[in-house]
Design a protein that fits this description.
The protein is an alpha+beta fold. It has five helices and three strands. Helix content is 45%, strand content 12%. It comes from Oceanithermus desulfurans.
Amino acid sequence: MDISINVDTTNIDTMARAFKALADPTRLRVLEVLSRGEHCVCEIQAHLDPLPQNLLSHHLRVLKEAGLVLAEKRGRWVHYRLNEPRLEALRQSVPRLDPNKQVECACRGAVETK
């Protein structure tokens, strides 16, 4: 019985960084705000009071570095929006059970002895 599993490791580190960026409640709230459309920092902050702007900027930087949000500077303001293709790629990276590719564990056939 072949129980080898082929894992594509090319994007594992990139995906892990993105999931790490999502592992914070404040950053998830920022994404929720941005799911309603593009916003500047002050508009995002209005939804996340009493979060100080420097802390919000830190969270936005983490999200941007993970590729989850895009930023565009317009004059004095930076406008943020979701990076939809990147978020969809992240959603698709979560493994799903494929009923046609299930492999039976070798230990299930083993007889336990005492």
